[in-house]
Amino acid sequence: MTPLAVPAPTSGSDDRTAGLPPRADCIADSAGGLTFDVSDHGAHDPAHLVLIDRAGGEEVRLPLAPAGDGRLRASLPIGVGLPEGRWDAYAQVAGEQPVRLMPGVNDLRSLVDRAPSGSRGHVAVRIPYATKHGNLTVRSWLRTPHAEAGELLIEDGELTVRGRLYGTAFAAGARAELRSREAAGEIRTGELSADGAAFTLRIGYAELDAGRWDVWLRPAGPQGPEVRVARLLDDVADKKPIFTYPAARVSAAGRELTASPYYTVDNDLSVLVATA
Fold first, then answer.
1. What is the C-alpha to C-alpha distance for residues 100 and 189, in angstroms, rounded to an integer?
2. Paired residues of 187 in beta bridges
3. Residue 164 in contact with residue 148, Cβ under 8 Å?
4. Which of 46, 110, 49, 100 is nearest to 78 (CA)?
5. Closest by alpha carbon to 218, among 155, 163, 165?
6. b/e per residue, 192-213, with b = 16+ CB within 10 A?
7. 3-class DSSP assignment, residue 128
């Protein structure tokens, strides 16, 4: 779907007279839902906020209703399904083409350290952010179940991950797996301990070959669900360039290696091992 072309602004004009795209302020609630307050460009016909999945083109349409102060408001409760992906935000007045929304002010304080109940069997996360082109997009995750990474500790050539499991429970035979991306089927195990839903995972760097290793949990053992370890429950949409960790140098079987944890473009936890 292609947004309307927008004429260049003129000096001293506001958004409406300059023809700038509408802006949307976003407020997150404690359950993880979002409210969008969109600047009203004088539209009097029914309008919608349209979220379009960047990968598959699926649409979610939310009615925009007058909210006072020249704004239109749309709500995206956590109970409304939003499959995992990146959803570009548009405003559309009835009978007109959709117009790409620009980000306004985001109040995402309620997302920080959010602890969902997990009673639905899944964890849903939505984080609005500004794209590199200055547009508004919502990053959505839907994990069934989910292993949330918390504190990462690096000491003596070992990575310790503390976290919490949602949507399932640990059982006999629970284990952690590190899966190589370069060598299909190659798996290393980490030392896993659990206390209720809380878990601690220890990964010895010297046990890993050079390459990228994705971190997974098998809470019920090899025959149970596979749960990717990720960090989702905060207000940072893209953690890879922001959450950086020092590389540790280790010696293993006559090899000198460096290893460090990192978050992928999907905010999943992985470990990068390289020849020193």
1. 46
2. 179
3. yes
4. 110
5. 165
6. bebeebebbbebbbeebbeebb
7. strand
Tokens standing for residue 140: 């959505």
Instruction: Give φ, ψ of 154 to 5 degrees.
Output: -120, 120
CB 68 within 8 A of CB 102: no
3-state secondary structure 30-80: CCCCEEEEEECCCCCCCEEEEEEECCCCCEEEEEEEEEECCEEEEEECCCC
SS3 call for 189: strand
Handedness of CA 155, 191, 256, 151 (dihedral sign): negative
Question: Residue 235 has what DSSP assignment?
Answer: S
Q: What are phi and psi for residue 218, nearest 5 degrees?
A: -120, 85
Tell me the pLDDT of the chain (276 aa) as tens digits. 333 333 333 333 345 435 678 999 999 999 999 999 998 766 567 899 999 999 999 999 999 999 978 899 999 999 998 999 999 999 999 889 999 999 999 999 999 988 887 677 789 999 999 999 999 999 999 999 999 999 999 998 999 999 999 999 999 999 999 999 999 889 999 999 999 999 999 999 999 999 999 999 999 999 899 999 999 999 999 999 999 999 999 987 788 999 999 999 999 999 999 998
DSSP state, residue 225: -
Of 27, 48, 44, whose CA–CA distance to 36 is shortest? 27
CA-to-CA distance for 6 and 9, rounded, in angstroms?
A: 9
Say if strands 255-263 and 187-195 run parallel, antiparallel, or are unpaired: unpaired
DSSP H or E segment with residue 230: strand 227-230
The CA distance from 35 to 269, in Å, is 29
Tokens of 103: 């980000």
